[in-house]
Amino acid sequence: MLVKNKPIGAFKIFYAVFAYIIVFALWWDYLLYAKNEEAFKEKIELNQINFEMLHPSGDYYATKEYAQIISKYSRQKVMIIGEGVFFLLLLFFGLMRVRRVFLRELELVDLQRNFMLSITHELKSPLSTIKLTLQTLHKRQLDIEKSTKLISNSLTDLDRLESLVDNILFASKIEREEPGFSNEPTDVAIVIRSIADRLSYNKKSIAIKTEVPKEVYLDTDLMGFTSVVVNLLENAIKYSASGSEINIGLEDNLENVVLWVRDQGMGIAEKEKGKIFQKFYRIGNEDTRNAKGTGLGLYIVKRFVEIYKGTISVEDSSPRGSLFIIRLPRQ
Hints:
Layout (H helix, E strand, L loop, with lengths): L1 H4 L2 H47 L9 H76 L4 H32 L8 E4 H15 L4 E5 L5 E4 L1 H17 L6 E8 L3 E7 L34 H11 L3 E6 L5 E8 L2
Parallel strand pairs: 2-4
Antiparallel strand pairs: 1-3, 4-5, 5-7, 6-7
C-alpha cells in the first residue's frame, strides 16, 4: 500500500538527521562526563598537594574533605548520566512521534488517492452505461422486452449513483458533526426487510435471507439506520461470489438491539480488521482490485454506531466469509 508511494528520499533524510542528532547528543554527553572527570581529578590532585604541604605524614585519602569531594563527584556523575539518558529517551520518543505523524500523513494521502481513483470509476461507469442506453432507445426502435431490460439496468445504475451520492453527503455530515439526527421510534425490522428485498431484486445471483422478527422498534434516525443496513449488505454483496448466500438478522434484547450480517465471501485478514472502518480505506490496491466501492461505507457504519453509543465488531464466519455484529443500546 504505502510502500509503493512512499518518498524514500524523505525517509533517508529523516533517518540521517535522526542519527546525527543522536550521535551529537551522545558526543556532548560524553564530553560533559569527561570534563567532569577531569575537573574532579585536578581538584583532588590540588587538594592533595596542599594537604601534604600542611601534613607531610598524613593520609589525604582518609580525610573528610576527600570523602566530600568523592561524594559530590559521584552525585554529579549520576546526574550527568541520568540527564543524558533522559534527554536521549525524550529525543528518541519525540522523533518517533514525528515519524508516526509523517507516516499517518502519507497514509492519508494514499487513501485520498485511492478514493479519487475509485470515485472516478464509480461515477463514470454508470453514467456511461445510462448514456449509451438512452442513445440506443433514442435512435432505435426496440421491442418491449429489450427496452424493459435496458431501462431496468439503467435504473440499477441510477440506484448505484444515488447510493454513492448519499454516502458522500452522509459522510460529510458525520465528519462535520452536523446536527440533524432524529431519535424517533422506528420499526427497524421493516427497514431491514425492505432493503433486503430491493437489493435481492437488483442482485438476483446472490440470495439474501433475513432472520428478522415481525417488528422491532428502536429510537433512531431512519436515514442513518437505512444507510447502515444498505452499506453492510452492499459490502457483503461486493465480496461475495455469484450463487452464494448472505444472511442478515435482528435480535431484540432488553438492553440493546443486535443487527448482524453474515456473508460467504473471501473473509477479512486479521491485520485488516482494525483498518476497514477507516475513512477511504479499502482492502488491496485501487489499481488492482476489482470490487466496486469508495471506502466510505464501513466508515459511515462505524461513525453512526458511535454516535448512538453502540458497538460494532467483525469476526470470521464459518466455513468462510465475515460476520459483522452491531449492538445499538436502547435510548
